Amino acid sequence: MTNTSTLSKSERAYQLIKDKITDGQYGPGFRLVLGTIAKELDVSVVPVREAIRRLEAEGLVTFTTNVGAQVVATDAREYQFTMETLSLVEGMATAMAAPNVTPGDIALARKINREMRECLDDFNPTRFTELNHEFHAVIFEHCPNLHILDLVHRGWNRLATIRESAFIYVPGRARESVDEHDRLLDLIESHASPIEVELAARNHRLSTLDAFLAGRN
User: Could you state, in order of their start, the residue ranges of all structural domains in the chain?
Assistant: First the structure.
């Protein structure tokens, strides 16, 4: 949960709603009642409305006349489309970011990946997914193309609307994912060609999707 003590009213409302969407308290289709949220935060409905508009722009919330604001509903097909798109934009972002990744970034990414490996025996898919995001963000945040980076962020935000981690269905995929992280870092550290890095990042994402879809059948 984000520390909201020093944030503006609108930012506090945004963080509260987004955190509750991400952790599943506000599930798909949940109706966001402005007055209720405003009362919880002890603010007027104005900053809550601003927060909901921001979340709508990010694709986490939808607004329908006569219904109001609701958390976007997702399904396996939505997850598939999001992952397919993310594999493309994150693959390119990772390749473009690679030259800007420092030895310190590599060390941090390896540290996160070790923590991911350590939690495999007592597997917590939600925590594993959080660490997975942290790992990839260490790399893709260095992408110099802000338009592509924005698409990556939007993809991750869409994934956040899916309450169930893909690793719940395919826990065996988690170990493979960690190994692939090591190989991706090796490529970046050895200054591999951009296409090698891009394909490694893209196939890493698609392998998780393939395992997820197989596990749902």
Answer: 9-71, 76-216
pLDDT tens, 186-213? 999 999 999 999 999 999 999 999 988 8
Instruction: For the sheet with 61-64, list strands across it.
Output: 31-32, 68-71, 61-64
Sort 54 into a burial class: Cβ within 10 Å, 0-12 / 13-18 / 19+: middle
Three-state DSSP string of the chain? CCCCCCCCHHHHHHHHHHHHHHCCCCCCCCEECHHHHHHHHCCCHHHHHHHHHHHHHCCCEEEECCCEEEECCCCHHHHHHHHHHHHHHHHHHHHHHHHHCCHHHHHHHHHHHHHHHHCCCCCCHHHHHHHHHHHHHHHHCCCCCHHHHHHHHHHHHHHHCCCCCHHHHCHHHHHHHHHHHHHHHHHHHCCCCHHHHHHHHHHHHHHHHHHHHHHHC
pTM above 0.85, yes or no: no
Strands 31-32 vs 61-64: parallel, antiparallel or unpaired:
unpaired
Q: In the CATH hierarchy, which top-level class contains the domain 76-216?
A: mainly alpha
* Topology adopted by domain 9-71: Arc Repressor Mutant, subunit A (1.10.10)
